């Protein structure tokens, strides 16, 4: 019975390694539904704080941003702390005005050495993409996907 | 002349949590005489996060995010227990499609947990090469989870009233493909590892828990079934879609570590069978997969029981007409395994320090589940 172990073991010994070389060769594993970094549409957000209330990890704080925001009288927007965020997507589901959505930017794209840079201000959240291989993964309406894609292309 | 030191006095030894033989983040205080383990005391609390209390401060639907986190290896059965309890509180029947998909996801979670345990068991026996194939099989399942739910480890796919998103159109093929890959690897592992003579000699007759004693010790799950009692909540009190599929409940006879190993491997095949039966039943045209529930559930209590990978997982929720639960009580399956069962085994047979990791790992406790 030990011979069998060697026989099957040899089969696996001759296979290619299963592990992947990240980040040298490949990016993080993502799919069409991977929940990653958020995108905030500041022209839609009304500052209702629903996202802050629903967040199970207390990752969202409402901060003031000066500017012409007719829909947002209090001028407050969510700021997400990625040290706390669990990427559950509850905030996207809870937002009544479709202002928040999620992309598949995750894994080591979000890794940083500077702790302070994990705090994403509303302006940083609304600027769409740093990488080209993004996909919008969690939104509530199809029109939102198209709008974000266009914006991403013009930014890239 | 060489001096031989014979240890005659009893010593106390701390075992874990940073020990490859320890089952995750728990420690033990062992009382040793020479090699023989005389007594064992569990030291929990390294991972205590206070989930039951935390859940009282979060909304009903948000608590799903917390509930998957009590057990890293088997998150979906934990989620299912919670959402069943909340569904019970609302008094709703979820759509059929949601039930089917919930069952598929929960069974995948069981397979994934048992695969993880193979690696775990291998570490206890000092065998690393073959069990690491199980991690490759688990990786395939994690990729499948990413494809379906958007996350690899904690999925948050179940919600009170159904499932969070509809299944993709190619769900059937993709799932079958994953199962195919997994079952091939499991077959190889069975051939090369489970039937191996060294594994058998290390585990046969070690850590025996038999028959009615297992019930008295409060055990459930594979350990109870290895003891010869065919009790499985999926059969005894079918939830989700388990009433609509046929499957077997593997039962052991000797109740030793080797029986527990065999039963878990058989359970993987049974889970694959369940998923294969359910896939054709999922109606892709059906739009009903999630009920819109009111934000405040009615007053009262709800109960959810599931057969998790380690045994019976029970969730009891109480509501006093609020957006927040008044109380969430969880009865985890792992606690008796490391307290009553270990004490029983150690007092009943001659356990040496080398057998100890083997026994602990064949019980497959989940340390985060004990602490919560
Ligand atoms: S994804 Fe979840 S944890 Fe992250 S900010 Fe949104 S609600 Fe909070
Ligand atoms: S992002 Fe959405 S939920 Fe959050 S404050 Fe703005 S509108 Fe409200």
TrEMBL record, chain A:
PANTHER family: FORMATE HYDROGENLYASE SUBUNIT 6-RELATED (PTHR10849:SF35), NADH DEHYDROGENASE UBIQUINONE IRON-SULFUR PROTEIN 8, MITOCHONDRIAL (PTHR10849)
Key words, A-Z: 4Fe-4S, Iron, Iron-sulfur, Metal-binding, Repeat
Protein name, UniProt field: 4Fe-4S ferredoxin-type domain-containing protein
Stored InterPro entries: 4Fe4S_Fe-S-bd, 4Fe4S_Fe_S_CS, NADH_quinone_OxRdtase_chainI, RLI1
Pfam families named in the record: Fer4_9 (PF13187)
GO molecular function: 4 iron, 4 sulfur cluster binding; metal ion binding; NADH dehydrogenase activity
GO BP of this protein: aerobic respiration
Residue ranges of every copy of the 4Fe-4S ferredoxin-type domain listed in the record: 36-65, 76-105
Stored Gene3D superfamilies: 3.30.70.3270
4Fe-4S as UniProt keyword: yes
Gene Ontology CC annotations of this record: membrane
Keyword Endoplasmic reticulum listed: no
Organism: Zestosphaera tikiterensis
Superkingdom as given in the UniProt entry: Archaea
PROSITE patterns membership: 4FE4S_FER_1 (PS00198), 4FE4S_FER_2 (PS51379)
């Amino acid at each position: 019975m030990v011979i069998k172990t060697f026989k099957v073991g040899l089969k696996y010994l001759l296979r290619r390694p299963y592990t992947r070389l990240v980040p040298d060769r490949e990016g993080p594993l993502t799919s069409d539904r991977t929940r990653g970094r958020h995108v905030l549409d500041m022209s839609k957000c009304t500052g209702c704080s629903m996202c802050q209330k629903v967040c199970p990890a207390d990752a969202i704080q409402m901060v003031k941003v000066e500017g012409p925001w007719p829909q947002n009288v209090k001028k407050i927007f969510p700021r997400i702390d990625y040290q706390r965020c669990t990427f559950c997507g509850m905030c996207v589901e809870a937002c009544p005005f479709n202002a928040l959505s999620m992309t598949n930017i995750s894994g080591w794209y979000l890794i940083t050495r500077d702790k302070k840079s994990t705090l994403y201000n509303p302006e940083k959240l609304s600027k769409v993409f740093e990488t080209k291989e993004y996909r919008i993964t969690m939104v509530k309406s199809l029109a939102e996907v198209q709008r974000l894609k266009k914006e991403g292309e013009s930014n890239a | 002349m060489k001096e031989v030191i014979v240890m005659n006095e009893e010593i106390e030894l701390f075992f874990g949590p940073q020990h490859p033989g320890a089952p995750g983040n728990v420690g033990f205080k062992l009382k040793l005489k020479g090699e023989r383990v005389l007594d064992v005391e569990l030291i929990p609390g390294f991972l205590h996060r206070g989930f039951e209390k935390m859940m009282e401060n979060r909304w009903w639907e948000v608590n799903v995010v917390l509930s998957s986190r009590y057990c890293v290896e088997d998150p979906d059965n934990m989620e299912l227990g919670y959402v069943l309890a909340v569904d019970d509180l609302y008094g709703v029947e979820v759509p059929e499609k949601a039930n089917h998909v919930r069952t598929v996801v929960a069974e995948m979670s069981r397979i994934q947990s048992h695969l993880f345990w193979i690696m775990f068991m291998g570490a206890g026996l000092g065998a690393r090469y073959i069990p690491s194939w199980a991690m490759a099989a688990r990786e395939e399942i994690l990729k499948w989870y990413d494809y379906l739910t958007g996350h690899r480890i904690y999925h948050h796919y179940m919600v009170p009233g159904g499932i969070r998103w509809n299944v993709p159109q190619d769900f059937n093929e993709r799932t079958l493909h994953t199962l195919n890959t997994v079952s091939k690897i499991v077959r190889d592992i069975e051939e090369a590892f489970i039937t191996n003579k060294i594994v058998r000699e290390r585990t046969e007759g070690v850590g025996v828990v038999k028959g009615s004693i297992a019930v008295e010790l409060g055990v459930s799950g594979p350990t109870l079934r290895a003891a010869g009692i065919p009790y499985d909540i999926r059969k005894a009190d079918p939830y989700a879609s388990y009433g609509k599929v046929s499957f077997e409940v593997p039962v052991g006879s000797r109740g030793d570590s080797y029986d527990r190993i065999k039963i878990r491997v058989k359970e993987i095949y049974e889970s694959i069978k369940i998923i294969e039966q359910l896939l054709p039943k999922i109606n892709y045209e059906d739009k009903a997969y999630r009920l819109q529930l009111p934000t405040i559930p009615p007053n009262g209590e709800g109960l959810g029981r599931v057969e998790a990978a380690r045994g019976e997982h029970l969730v009891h929720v109480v509501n006093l007409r609020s957006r927040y639960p008044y109380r969430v009580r969880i009865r985890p399956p792992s606690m008796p395994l490391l307290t009553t069962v270990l004490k029983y085994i150690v007092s009943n047979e001659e356990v040496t320090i080398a057998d100890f990791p083997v026994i602990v790992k064949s019980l497959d406790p989940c340390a985060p589940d004990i602490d919560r």
